[in-house]
Specification:
VC0802-like, about 30% helix, rRNA (guanine-N7-)-methyltransferase activity, about 425 residues, RNA binding, THUMP domain-containing protein, single chain, binds S-adenosylmethionine, Rossmann fold, DNA_methylase_N6_adenine_CS, seven-stranded mixed β-sheet
C-alpha cells in the first residue's frame, strides 16, 4: 500500500484539537501525524487515510495529497516543474480543472495570479501532449483541484481529495445572516471539553450550527456521511477501503436514526426567522428531536437542572430585532415558544450602540443569575466583551473565523466569581 504525504488545512487556532481528532480517526484507517503548523496539519498514510479524514473530520477544511515539492526561483521554474508531473495518472482531459495558489509574502513571484496561470497551462499542455486533449477549466464546480503552495524557496503541488470544502456537510439549506462555519463550531465544542452526557445550550443559535454539530457528534454520525468527495473522481486512486468506511458510516447513521435518543442539546434565538432556518437544517441533518425555543438571551433560563455548557457567537456590531414568528415544532418534539414582546420592543427602539451595550450587560446578568455552575464559551471579535458582560474571563483562546481574529472567552459561572467585575479585559 503506497504511503502519501497529506496536508490538511483547518481554521487557525484549532490545530491542537485537530491533531487529537486525527489520532481518533487513525483508529479507522492508519495515519501518522507528522507536524502541525498555523492553519493546518501534515500527516502520512495510505489512500484510506485521506478517505477517513474526509469522511470523519469535523475540523479539517480539506485534505490535500502532496504530488511533488521542489525549489524554484521564478514562474518559469513553476511551469517546468508542473510539466514534469504525471497528472495523466490522476485525471483525464474529460475532467474539469481548477488551480488554486497560496503564496507566502516572501515567494519570489511578481504576480501570484500569473504564477497560478503558468501552473494551469503546464498541466493542460502536459495532458494534451500525453492524451491529445486539454481539460476545461471550471472554477465553480471542478472535478479536480490542484493546489500550489509557494514558500520563499519551495513550490509544493497538491491534488485535492476533498472537493467542496469540508465544512459544507450537505445539510445546510439556508445560511442565515452570519452562520458559523461548521468546522469552527465543531472545534469550539472540542475546545470546550463538552461530551454528550453534559447539557449543551446555544442561546443565540441562529441557523443551528453548534447544536447540529453537537447532536451529530453525540450520535456518532460521520461529518461527511451525506456528501461526495473529490477522490471519488480521481482515476487510479485506490478505492478498495471506501466501501468498508462508507458502510460503517451508513450503519451508524441508520442506528442513530432508529433510536430516537433524547439529547441534552438546546438552542434558542430571538429571531423566529432564524429558528425556521434552524428547524429546516435540523430536519435535513436528520435531527428532529432537538429542543428549540424563541427567547431573548437576556430572558433565558437554564434548560436543565444539571449545569452544563453554553456556547454562543453573539451578533457583533449589528442591530438586533425580532423578526418573524417561530414555527410550531412538528412531531413529538419540544414546542417552540414565542419570546417576550416587552423585551423585544427595547431592541427596536434603542440605538444600535446602546442596544448592544445594554444587551451584553443583560446577557452577562442572565448568566450570573440563572446559570450557576455552568461554563459559557463565547466567540467574538470584540475583545472588550467580558467587560461589557461584567464577567471575568477564565480563559481566552485566539481563533480565526475566516480572516477575522476572534477570541473564545470562557466564563466559569461559579458563585465566587459572580461578583468579580472587570471593566475591560484586554
Ligand atoms: C452571529 S449569529 C449566530 C449564528 C449561529 N451561530 C449560526 O451558526 O447560525 C447571532 C444570532 O444571535 C441572535 N440574536 C441576536 N440578539 C439576540 C438576543 N437578544 N437573544 C437571542 N438571540 C439573539 C440573532 O438572531 C442571530 O441568529
Amino acid at each position: 500500500m503506497p504511503s502519501f504525504e497529506f496536508f490538511s488545512p483547518c481554521p487557525r487556532g484549532l490545530e491542537a484539537v485537530f491533531v487529537d481528532e486525527l489520532h481518533e480517526i487513525a483508529l479507522r484507517a492508519p495515519l501518522e501525524v507528522s507536524a502541525s503548523v498555523p492553519g493546518g496539519v501534515y500527516f502520512t498514510g495510505g489512500p484510506a487515510a485521506a478517505m477517513a479524514v474526509n469522511l470523519h473530520s469535523r475540523i479539517a477544511s480539506r485534505v490535500l495529497l502532496k504530488v511533488a515539492q521542489q525549489s524554484y526561483h521564478n514562474e518559469n521554474d513553476l511551469f517546468a516543474f508542473a510539466s514534469e508531473q504525471a497528472w495523466e495518472d490522476w485525471f483525464t482531459a474529460q475532467h474539469t480543472l481548477r488551480v488554486d495558489i497560496t503564496a507566502m509574502k516572501t515567494a519570489p513571484v511578481r504576480n501570484v495570479g500569473f504564477a497560478a496561470l503558468r501552473v494551469k497551462d503546464a498541466i493542460c499542455d502536459r495532458l494534451r501532449a500525453v492524451t491529445g486533449a486539454r481539460p476545461n477549466i471550471d472554477t465553480a464546480t471542478p472535478d479536480v483541484r490542484v493546489f500550489v503552495f509557494l514558500s520563499a524557496t519551495e513550490c509544493t503541488l497538491y491534488l485535492d481529495t476533498t472537493g467542496e470544502a469540508l465544512f459544507k456537510r450537505g445539510w445546510r439549506l439556508d445560511k442565515g445572516a452570519a452562520p458559523l462555519r461548521e468546522n469552527l463550531a465543531a472545534g469550539i465544542l472540542r475546545l470546550s471539553g463538552w461530551t454528550p452526557a453534559v447539557p449543551l445550550y446555544d442561546p443565540m443559535c441562529g441557523s443551528g450550527t453548534f447544536i447540529i454539530e453537537a447532536a451529530q457528534m453525540a450520535l456518532g454520525l460521520a461529518a461527511g456521511g451525506e456528501r461526495h468527495f473529490a477522490f471519488e473522481k480521481l482515476q487510479s486512486y485506490d478505492m478498495s477501503a471506501w466501501p468498508r468506511l462508507k458502510a460503517a458510516a451508513l450503519e451508524a447513521q441508520q442506528i442513530a436514526r432508529s433510536q430516537h435518543r433524547e439529547l441534552n442539546i438546546f438552542g434558542s434565538d430571538i429571531s423566529g426567522d432564524m429558528l425556521v432556518k434552524a428547524q429546516a437544517n435540523l430536519e435535513r441533518a436528520g435531527l428532529r428531536q432537538l429542543w428549540l425555543k424563541q427567547v431573548d438571551a437576556c430572558a433565558m433560563v437554564a434548560p436543565t437542572e444539571t449545569p452544563g455548557i453554553i456556547v454562543a457567537n453573539p451578533p457583533y456590531g449589528e442591530r438586533v430585532e425580532v423578526r418573524g414568528q417561530a414555527p410550531r415544532a412538528r412531531g413529538q418534539g419540544h414546542e417552540m415558544q414565542t419570546g417576550r414582546r416587552d423585551q423585544n420592543e427595547f431592541f427596536r427602539e434603542a440605538q444600535p450602540d446602546e442596544a448592544s451595550a445594554e444587551f451584553f450587560r443583560a446577557f452577562g446578568d442572565a448568566l450570573k443569575q440563572r446559570f450557576t455552575g455552568w461554563q459559557a464559551f463565547v466567540l467574538t471579535s470584540d475583545r472588550g466583551l467580558p467587560g461589557q458582560m461584567r464577567l471575568r474571563a477564565a480563559k481566552r483562546t485566539p481563533l480565526f473565523n475566516g480572516p477575522i481574529e476572534c477570541r473564545l472567552f470562557r466564563f466559569d459561572l461559579v458563585t465566587g466569581s459572580m461578583r468579580e467585575r472587570r471593566s475591560d479585559e484586554e
